[in-house]
Task: inverse folding
């Protein structure tokens, strides 16, 4: 297996930032790129790269959605006051987000070994990319959502969480799956996008903690082979590209053009499958 170079780290960081937010699956792109570069995804450098790249994309979410996040946190604090005399929308969103996060954690922890094996199988990656394409195409004629937070039930949040959990499979887009499911359940499109990234932050941070434990285990075993320069360069690129990609995605959601990404997923999925035959 090759050592991570600056060029490879920059390419992987750009793919992470771009595909984490655009509905084309960052995990699928990274798995295919790592195979192309002959990089070991379980090596210490690659595990740490994944950690830092995910931190970069979380940073992009917090920057782009700083205003609605700040409003949400401010209202949530106010709603904890017993004398609050209005509807507790922020508390409801927090509860829905917690419900949606539960199946993600259960799927990720319960099927970790099986999911890791899928990263080495181009056929499964290609099939999942094509499934993502079908999800995106389904939004083409989806009716405009009218449902607000007051009408979004706990079981609907659970379905969004299951969609996010399924995105642990390489090739299933996390943003694509969660937004498509939320839209199909009638949630207004802007809120579907914001809810998608609201539940993404704890999911990404949780995956980061799992990867950090793997890095710590390798460190204790004496397998120290980290290329810090490329790792940090890739993380910075993931953050910068993620800023642009998140803006593009939010625009696509508003303009009802998510299905434009479906052909790309179909083509890349087919290429991945054919390359393994």
Result:
């Amino acid at each position: 297996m090759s050592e991570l170079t600056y060029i490879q780290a920059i390419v992987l960081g750009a793919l992470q930032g771009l595909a984490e937010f655009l509905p084309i699956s960052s995990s699928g792109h990274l798995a295919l790129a790592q195979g192309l570069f002959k990089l070991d995804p379980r090596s210490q450098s690659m595990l740490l790269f994944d950690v830092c790249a995910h931190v970069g994309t979380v940073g992009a979410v917090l920057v782009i959605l700083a205003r609605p996040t700040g409003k949400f946190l401010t209202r949530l604090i106010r709603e904890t006051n017993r004398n609050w005399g209005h509807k507790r929308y922020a508390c409801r969103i927090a509860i829905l987000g917690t419900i949606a996060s539960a199946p993600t954690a259960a799927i990720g922890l319960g099927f970790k070994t099986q999911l890791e094996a899928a990263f080495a199988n181009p056929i499964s990656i290609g099939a999942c990319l094509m499934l993502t394409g079908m999800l995106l195409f389904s939004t083409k004629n989806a009716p405009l959502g009218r449902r607000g937070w007051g009408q979004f039930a706990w079981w609907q949040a659970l379905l969004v969480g299951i969609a996010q959990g399924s995105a642990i499979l390489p090739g299933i887009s996390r943003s694509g799956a969660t937004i498509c499911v939320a839209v199909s359940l009638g949630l207004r499109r802007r809120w579907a996008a914001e809810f998608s990234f609201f539940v993404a932050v704890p999911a990404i941070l949780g995956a980061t903690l799992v990867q950090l434990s793997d890095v710590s285990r390798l460190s204790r075993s004496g397998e120290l082979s980290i290329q810090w320069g490329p790792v940090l360069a890739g993380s910075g690129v993931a953050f910068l590209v993620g800023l642009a990609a998140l803006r593009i995605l939010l625009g696509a959601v508003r303009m009802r053009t998510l299905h434009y990404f479906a052909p790309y997923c179909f083509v890349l999925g087919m290429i991945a499958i054919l390359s393994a035959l």
